[in-house]
Amino acid sequence: MFDLIIRNANLPDGRTGLDVGCRGGRIAALEAGIAADAGQVVDAGGRLLSPPFIDIHFHMDATLSLGRPRRNRSGTLLEGIQLWGELRPMLDREEMVARALRYCDLAVAQGLLAVRSHVDVTDDRLIGVEALLEVRDRVKPYFDLQLVAFPQDGYFRRPGTAANLERALDMGVEVVGGIPHGERTMEDGRRSVTALCELAAGRGLMVDLHCDETDDPMSRHIETLVFETQRLGLGRRVAGSHLTSMHSMDNYYASKLLALIAEAGVHCVPNPVANIVLQGRHDTYPKRRGLMRVPELLALGVTVAFGQDSMLDPWYPLGNADMLDVASMAVHVGHMTSLAAMKDSFDAVTVNAAEVFGLQDYGIAVGNHADFVLLEARDTVEAIRLRAARLAVIRRGRIIAQSAPRTATLALEGRPVAVEPWRYAPADAD
Ligand code: FE2
Description:
2 domains; Urease, subunit C, domain 1; 34% helix; alpha/beta; 4-stranded mixed β-sheet; TIM Barrel; binds fe (ii) ion; 7-stranded parallel β-sheet
């Protein structure tokens, strides 16, 4: 007897026609044709059952603030930071909690059940930290929120920020953040990487730096991050976010750098949607794309996970908490259109992100948490193509969100027909 059985599901690894039996919030059986009964049965009908989406890079303190106090007119990263600086003193804890909770509702509806959010520690009041710690507790039954102490205006650039960052860690923020390319000089940037990695090593924490988020090919703080990861023995606890300068680097240097990243086990976190709109803004034509070298990193065995970064905030005026949209952008911007590369893009918003996050018992296997999203698609590539509807979102064996299928009924003369987009793709063949 199970609490829940999901019947006839396809899995992201290509297995088809499986039943998933859930008991006590865990996956208790995974096989074709489970004979036992269950309190509740969901018929997947040959659709894709995935573990939930994970957004490994987001700013929940800024989301849903679009237009306050004005919009980003230039579209640049720097104006976004300036605009956030104007908004920051106007914020209070209650409104930030309300915005973040509203965002989490949308995320749940989208099958997005784990988010690593940076939280700005520049303001001495640390209201962002207080707000998101409260939100982390309130959503805990259905949502994993992990926080990164992020010195938006630089770690050394403003007196007091370094102390604020430590206070945030003392309050319970789990990950050490930074922004070396935002410091006043290259040397300050280098020193900040060293200081932040030492801080993390001393406290036994993970590191996730906004690193080289610029088109300047000489922005090479990732090199220091890799070095410090090895020197301090931080392997597989460190992520370099953005790394957009890598797009513009000299190919010889990149070939050396990528091998060093792989050797150190540093995770890489591109943010394809944010990167394509924020980078290249100082170019005339051609305009660079600003995406790190994702296929080349994957080929070397580096764990690459995609983040959304922003939604309806000073940096990005669109977004819908849709990690399939993020994966789709990577497919396009990164020329990742081979069948294998498209599958890699789905992994980058699920299993790879779980590894970077450090999420335990994630994935569809016996013994793991019974957390799923049932998508209106047959496989991962179709899910990306369609930004497939999240028919059901399941947390610990309980359905917590449902959406209607996207079927259109045509009324054409003489031939009424239902259009179901998820039935259009041919069978897979590479
Ligand atoms: Fe970011």
